[in-house]
């Protein structure tokens, strides 16, 4: 996995969110679909994209986020997956400074809305935690792996708390083995 810049990550997320919204646009043209009942389901990166998509598009009324979370800085710093550690982990001092900056940014977003706050780092705009306040009081289900090596439990719980404590389930498994539970997820 090559290291991507903040700008490259932003473009990947932006494109994915636009594509989700285009599917909702398409669904709204279909007589056989109830546009009042549009939901998204996302796994891993798809969960991050689904959370952002639901936050910015009120036509998406519900979501299921599987092995997902928020606070990308915390995810890459605390993940057990070597690929994230190798490419994105920073020194402890840089991490703490970044978390302080992000916390200040999140407080300002909570007060003014993300549209009216210039992020100190572009990457804040592709972090579900930035949009968590827009998911409060909305139907949301989080399904997570108890031994997730990519999304640390702490990052999931922080996001869960920021979303207003929606329904959450922890399945015994890892990030890459959670699919074994798919037949049982209803």
TrEMBL record:
InterPro entries linked: AB_hydrolase_fold (IPR029058)
Protein name (database record): Peptidase S9 prolyl oligopeptidase catalytic domain-containing protein
Taxonomic source organism: marine sediment metagenome
Lineage of origin: unclassified sequences, metagenomes, ecological metagenomes
